[in-house]
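Amino Acid Chain and Its Fold in Token Form
===========================================
Purpose: to set a sequence beside its fold so the mapping can be learned.
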Amino acid sequence: MALSFFWSIDKSTSIKSLLKEISLLLIPLVFIFSKTIFKQEKDKIIKYFSYSIVVVSIYFIVRAFLNFIINDSNTFFGHELVTKELNAVHYSVFVSFSLLYFITHEANTLKTIIIQLFLVSFLFLLQSKTVIITTVFLISLYFFFYSKTANKMRLRNIVMLVIVFFSFLFFHRIKEKIEFEFQLNKDNNIGHTVIPKEIVGDRIISMKEAWENDKFEQSDFFSGASFRVYQFRMFLEIMKEENVFFQGLGLNASYKMLEEKGLKYNVFQGNETTEGYQKKNFHNQYIQVFSELGFIGFVFLILILFVNLKNALKNKDFTHIVFAILMISLFLTESFLWRQRGVVFFTAFYCLFNTIYLSEKEKK
């Protein structure tokens, strides 16, 4: 990552970004020198983190109610609930992680059930479809394979058989639905909206138009999915035009290219209060890394995620599995590691789970 400065197409941006990513170096050093302490306190750390998310979420709900009563404004959903700076999608990950902790670790007392219901409700208010779908999958995975009731093999096998049967039965219908969604002009689909429709305009760009149009109008609104299709298209164009397949453009240097592309295709340029589409990142961690750190950086990221998931499955630690799968899915729609909160959360929990796993492996 630091080496990319030497071939970056935007050295001033790359050097500033290195300070933001310093957690990738400092946090692992802390874990190396304090491995024993973190091993002993691992469960407490996860517990305190989960309870802190509950407290912060209660604060956001109370604030939304006060805004509604005093200012008559609806701030109960998405970015407005937790602020754009904190980011509803990123905070959804914290809520999902905490929810699964209370489902898997805490006894089913009245207090725990209330907390679980509150976190489920809060997760839906945040409206991150990717995180919600992943959370539902993880809860199902826990009850079918890791909970005490999972020992009832007959029930599990019946359920799995029914799922496989219906998946095969409706395969063609699902395929047709995807093809239809690709051409549909709607703002309610997978992927969080980048800029609110009321700020941009009423004309909704479909995923097909995002992929094919030579020019856009300033009133053209990209839904979450269509914007990510447009960004993937820009990624392919940049990789084709620039000879940077192996080394990439340099850390955070893709912003310069994306801004040039945004001007070329005339996407919404922003106004006095809102920055335009040309100022946004790829909203996909895999593409972000590939474009800025090249194929080598992309392979390194895949290896990090693979090792994380492999260790989680080997250790049969469901909280670790939750973390691993949440990160893999989140990276499909967000450049999570390019945000301070993202890199701190990922690095801290990655080290917490994997250093403890490795130390236990060494003992054996």
About this structure: The radius of gyration is 22 Å. The longest helix spans residues 35-71.
